[in-house]
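Reopening: C-alpha cells for the zinc ion complex, inputs below.
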Amino acid sequence: MDSLFSRTFHKGPGPSRLFIGGVHGKEGETTFHALKSFDDRALNSGELYLYNFPPSPYISTLERRYYDSSTGREVLNLIKKIQPTIYLELHCYHEKNRSHLIHHDRKIKIGVPPLVELDKGVLIGSVSPIIRSVFFENYDFPFILEIPCQPSDDSLQVYVEVLNITAGSKNRIEILKKLELLYPHQVIKLNKYFIDFSDNFLTLFQKTREFALNGDLKDSDDLILFMENLMQELDLNLNQIQLKQVRAAVLIFLDYKHPSVV
Ligand SMILES: [Zn+2]
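Re-run output (same inputs, fresh job):
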C-alpha cells in the first residue's frame, strides 16, 4: 500500500504546526489512517501540515544515521521549511515492544525517559533529543505519540482526541493545560522529564554548540572531551549514551543550521 499522504490547512494568522507519520519502517500504514481522518474543524487559527511517509528501513530516531537516511533527511527538510512550534511525530508500536517503551530504565538503556501512557495504549513523550535541541525552542511543543499498530477503536479515539487538542491550541502551555485536565498524573511526569532535559541535555548541547562554532574543531572526539569536562564543571547529569546524542545533535546542527548554511 502506498501510504504517502500530505495535506495543508491554513486558517489565518497563528502558529505553524506539523504532524508527520511513517517516519520509519511500516508505521505509515497505521498512521496514514489516523492522519487521513483528521477533521480540520479542530483547527481554529494558524497552519497545519500533515505528512505521511511510505515504508522505509527501520532506523531509530535516536540514532544520527536515521537523519542521514532519505526519509530522515526529508523529515529534517520539512521541519526546516515549516519551522513548526507545534510538532507531532506519530508512531506505532507492536505489543511486544510496549514494555521497552514505558520502562523506567529507558534512560539508562537508550538515553531517553520512558514514554507515558495517556490511556488505552496511547503513549506520549518528547521527540528525539537529537532534533529537539537543534530545531525547537525550549517552550515549543515537539512530541511523539505512539499507538498500537493495530489500534482498537478505543485507542484511536484517545489518539484523535490528542490530535484535536494539539491542532486546536496555540502553544505548549495551552496544550499541556488541556491534557492536564484529562491526564493529570501523566502531565506531571512529562513536566519532570522536561525539566531534566532542559537542565542537563539542553544546557550541554547549547554550550557544546557554542564551542563547535567558535572553536577549531578537529574531529568529533574533541566534542566528547569538551563535554566530559563541562559536565564535571557544571555538575550535569547525563550518561554516556546521552553524551553521544548531544554530539549527534551538534553535528546535525553544523550540517543543517550552521550560520553559513542557513
Ligand atoms: Zn516509531
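The pocket of zinc ion is lined by residues 24, 27, 91 (CB under 6 Å). The longest helix spans residues 184-214. Marking as resolved unless the reporter disagrees.
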